[in-house]
């Protein structure tokens, strides 16, 4: 993949001149924009990550005068101070351009009617989905989150053709459509789904129960929001807009770039962002660059689905585990449905794991529990307590589903 050295050099000069945040980082690292003469020089520039952004709360990331800022967005702040991201008029326009492009890659046109269920307000999701759809000329139904009965009514009455949501809420809607017997009354053909990783069994359930084609969309608040990447009709990787972002994949241990095709941590540099440009931002998302051209012929490169996050890892009995490993395990066991929840607790001075999961109606719960327990021991390396239940026995979420509950450190 071609490396945009000139664009990166221009960005480094711009942040050196206008960003107090990066001026401080450059000074501490002893580097200047003039030092960046090759891609190797760029690869030696310091990283930034969310902890750095939190330390300059509220507006330490701002790289333009106040009068140039037209909007503020923010991360949730559930684990500390939120990250505040200022946007200029051009930032807002660029984000809408990228989002419209994403919709076109998903086969949407101005004849579509898109029902938007992610939240509005400081979060980037709802307003981003709306701006891109309006730029496309599609009919927007800006529902926002929750109120599932009204979501279903609007979906049927307004003949929504596209649903935008998290995978967790897509599953909720699919189950409620089935319960209400609305499958023949809805007109959905596509789902634009993002915000959390999700396994193949969950995908199949949503596709089959809603009768839609689903498209993964990627983004994060710090980098515009959703819409910076999406998969196309071939569903063999997510096209990302390398005229707006430069993406690296690094080894999270050595912090060095890995070859295309190898998995690692996604690092993003914003090439055009004005309000809060980011240079070598560590997302902690795990993916890989997919080499070669997509069958669709797009000039835009691809990264793979997000497999999880480096900080999703949890450790029990000296074994490191990721939720993605559990997705893959359950995917291969007949009778297991898509939903699961891991509970980690301490009993008698020892760490224990209980894995709750849902079992399809025609499957024998005891037999499936035995298969899951044996599979976990052989593939992941520890013994667990498997706890099967029928579909609907685990909690549902209108936002993101909590997969791992660690009770070891609760007082």
From TrEMBL:
<dbReference type="GO" id="GO:0047475">
    <property type="term" value="F:phenylacetate-CoA ligase activity"/>
</dbReference>
<keyword id="KW-0547">Nucleotide-binding</keyword>
<comment type="pathway">
    <text>Aromatic compound metabolism; phenylacetate degradation.</text>
</comment>
<keyword id="KW-0436">Ligase</keyword>
<dbReference type="InterPro" id="IPR051414">
    <property type="entry name" value="Adenylate-forming_Reductase"/>
</dbReference>
<keyword id="KW-0596">Phosphopantetheine</keyword>
<dbReference type="InterPro" id="IPR000873">
    <property type="entry name" value="AMP-dep_synth/lig_dom"/>
</dbReference>
<dbReference type="InterPro" id="IPR011880">
    <property type="entry name" value="PA_CoA_ligase"/>
</dbReference>
<dbReference type="InterPro" id="IPR028154">
    <property type="entry name" value="AMP-dep_Lig_C"/>
</dbReference>
<feature type="domain" description="AMP-dependent ligase C-terminal">
    <location>
        <begin position="319"/>
        <end position="408"/>
    </location>
</feature>
<comment type="subunit">
    <text>Monomer.</text>
</comment>
<dbReference type="InterPro" id="IPR042099">
    <property type="entry name" value="ANL_N_sf"/>
</dbReference>
<comment type="similarity">
    <text>Belongs to the phenylacetyl-CoA ligase family.</text>
</comment>
<dbReference type="GO" id="GO:0010124">
    <property type="term" value="P:phenylacetate catabolic process"/>
</dbReference>
<protein>
    <recommendedName>
        <fullName>Phenylacetate-coenzyme A ligase</fullName>
        <ecNumber>6.2.1.30</ecNumber>
    </recommendedName>
</protein>
<dbReference type="Pfam" id="PF14535">
    <property type="entry name" value="AMP-binding_C_2"/>
</dbReference>
<dbReference type="GO" id="GO:0000166">
    <property type="term" value="F:nucleotide binding"/>
</dbReference>
<keyword id="KW-0597">Phosphoprotein</keyword>
<dbReference type="Pfam" id="PF00501">
    <property type="entry name" value="AMP-binding"/>
</dbReference>
<dbReference type="InterPro" id="IPR045851">
    <property type="entry name" value="AMP-bd_C_sf"/>
</dbReference>
<feature type="domain" description="AMP-dependent synthetase/ligase">
    <location>
        <begin position="31"/>
        <end position="269"/>
    </location>
</feature>
């Amino acid at each position: 993949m071609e490396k945009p050295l000139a664009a990166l050099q221009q960005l480094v000069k711009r942040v050196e001149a206008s960003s107090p945040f990066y001026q401080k980082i450059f000074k501490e690292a002893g580097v200047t924009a003039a030092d960046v003469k090759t891609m190797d020089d760029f690869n030696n520039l310091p990283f930034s990550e969310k902890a750095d952004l939190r330390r300059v709360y509220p507006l330490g990331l701002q790289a333009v005068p106040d009068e140039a800022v037209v909007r503020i967005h923010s991360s949730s702040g559930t684990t500390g101070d939120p990250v505040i991201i200022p946007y200029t008029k051009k930032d807002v326009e660029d984000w809408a351009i990228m989002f419209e492009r994403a919709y076109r890659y998903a086969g949407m046109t101005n004849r579509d009617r898109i029902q938007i269920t992610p939240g509005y307000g400081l979060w980037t999701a709802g307003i981003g989905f709306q701006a891109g759809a309006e730029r496309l000329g599609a009919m927007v139904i800006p529902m926002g989150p929750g109120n599932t009965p009204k979501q279903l009514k609007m979906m049927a009455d307004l003949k929504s053709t596209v649903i935008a949501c998290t995978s967790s809420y897509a599953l909720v809607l699919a189950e409620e459509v089935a319960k209400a017997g609305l499958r023949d009354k809805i007109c959905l053909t596509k789902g634009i789904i993002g915000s959390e990783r999700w396994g193949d069994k969950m995908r199949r359930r949503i596709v089959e129960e809603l009768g839609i084609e689903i498209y993964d969309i990627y983004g994060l608040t710090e980098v515009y929001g959703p819409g910076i990447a999406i998969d196309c009709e071939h569903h063999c990787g997510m096209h990302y807009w390398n005229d707006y972002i430069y993406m690296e994949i690094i080894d999270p241990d050595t912090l060095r770039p890995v070859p295309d095709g190898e998995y690692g941590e996604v690092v993003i540099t914003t090439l055009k962002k004005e309000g809060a440009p980011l240079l070598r931002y560590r997302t902690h998302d795990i993916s890989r660059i997919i080499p070669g051209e997509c069958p669709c012929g797009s000039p835009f490169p691809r990264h793979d689905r997000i497999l999880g996050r480096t900080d999703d890892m949890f450790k029990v009995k000296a074994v490191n585990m990721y939720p993605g490993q559990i997705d893959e395990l359950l995917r291969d066991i007949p009778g297991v449905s898509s939903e699961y929840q891991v509970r980690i607790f301490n009993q008698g001075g020892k760490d224990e794991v209980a894995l709750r999961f849902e079992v399809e109606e025609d499957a024998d719960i005891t037999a499936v529990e035995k298969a899951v327990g044996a599979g976990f021991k052989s593939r992941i390396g520890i013994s667990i307590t498997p706890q099967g239940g029928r579909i609907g026995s685990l909690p549902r979420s209108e936002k993101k589903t909590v997969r791992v509950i660690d009770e070891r450190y609760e007082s």
